[in-house]
Design brief:
five-stranded mixed β-sheet, 8 helices, Heat Shock Protein 90, elongated, 342 residues, 3 domains
Length: 342
């Protein structure tokens, strides 16, 4: 906008100078009798006109240089490089325009990079999903084909039906976990934090693993005062704690113990979930929170490697965090830290 007005003003001043010169020449020939005076004034007017022309030419050159600098900046941005003529600390119109163009370029570049990251994440997610669902679907198809045979005994039929039901349940569990993971990663789930008793949230989480713990004769004990109040989302926090408990029950031998201890601190409320299971090597502390991660030694166990990943995502979105300490062969303690206030 400033450059356009600057060009209009330059043209206007040039026309004014030409008009004044023409008027002066006319007045000279009409009202000045002496030729020497005429030619002197004429020379002065010619000098003024020349200076005005030089000034207009200089302005035109500067505008052209400005346009060249802007075009060079745009070419550099398109090519993905820093323009060589960009001087961000100069107080000039060119530097200001170039600065704005480079800011726009940085925003667009970050958008492209984010789009590439999202594409890679989506490709990885599709690959992981296809790998996870391939086995149970193949098993269901196999058992369906076997059950369609007429020469199979009733006992075998019942056995295959039971096995196929287990595969269908596994597939259903996998799809539910994937839906939760998708909601978590895309941010489509909504946290509703409120001041609630932590004891009730832990009880809700324990309900999801009580049956499997009973089958393995695993004792679960809780140390949590009924008066402990924490601002959190009870539903999603129970989901996170339940996933950690499910992991503890799964990898604790029959007759083991799981202890839940709540310790209020000044800024955080800490929930320790300790088991007497197989333990986790220290070099895998961070790995256990990765999506679909499973150790080779436990590949035969049930699960898809999403529980701790979801738990970590849920807690971190409530401005908390999870830590882990473990000794191989002795047990593991997952510590959940929830902000005491928001």
């Amino acid at each position: 906008m400033k450059t356009r007005w600057f060009g209009i003003v330059s043209v206007f001043l040039g026309l004014m100078a030409a008009s004044l010169t023409a008027v002066l020449i006319w007045m000279l020939w009409e009202y000045v009798p002496r030729a020497s005076v005429r030619y002197g004034i004429l020379a002065v007017c010619a000098g003024i006109f020349l200076l005005a022309g030089l000034w207009a030419a200089l302005q035109r050159y500067q505008i052209g240089q400005f346009a060249d600098d802007v075009c060079e900046t745009l070419d550099a941005a398109i090519a993905g490089r820093q323009p060589g003529n960009f001087h961000p600390y100069e107080d000039s119109l060119t530097s200001k325009v170039q600065g704005k163009l480079m800011q726009y370029y940085d925003i667009m570049r970050e958008g492209r990079l984010q789009s590439q990251r999202d594409k890679q994440t989506l490709q990885s997610l599709v690959s992981d999903i296809s790998h996870q669902v391939k086995t149970p679907i193949a098993n269901v198809k196999l058992y369906t084909g076997i059950l369609q045979r007429r020469d199979i005994s009733e006992e075998k039929r019942e056995q295959f039906l039971h096995t196929m039901e287990a595969q269908i349940n596994k597939l259903d569990f996998l799809m539910q976990s994937l839906i939760k993971m998708s909601r978590l990663e895309t941010g489509t789930f909504i946290l509703c934090p409120l001041e609630a008793r932590l004891n009730d949230t832990i009880a809700q989480a324990m309900n999801t693993v009580w049956g499997s713990a009973e089958q393995k004769k695993i004792e679960i004990s809780v140390e949590c005062g009924a008066e402990i109040m924490v601002r959190h989302d009870p539903k999603w926090t129970a989901e996170a704690i339940g996933n950690i408990l499910d992991n503890a029950v799964k990898y604790t031998c029959s007759g083991g113990t799981i202890t839940i201890a709540v310790r209020p601190w000044q800024f955080y409320t800490r929930i320790d979930i300790s088991d007497t299971g197989r333990g986790i090597p220290e070099e895998h502390y961070n790995d256990v929170f990765q999506r679909f991660y499973r150790e080779e030694e436990v590949a035969a166990e049930e699960g898809v490697g999403l529980g701790l990943y979801l738990a970590n995502g849920i807690i971190t979105r409530q401005k908390g965090y999870i830590s882990v300490k473990s000794r191989v062969g002795e047990g593991t303690t997952f510590s959940v830290y929830l902000l005491s206030f928001n």
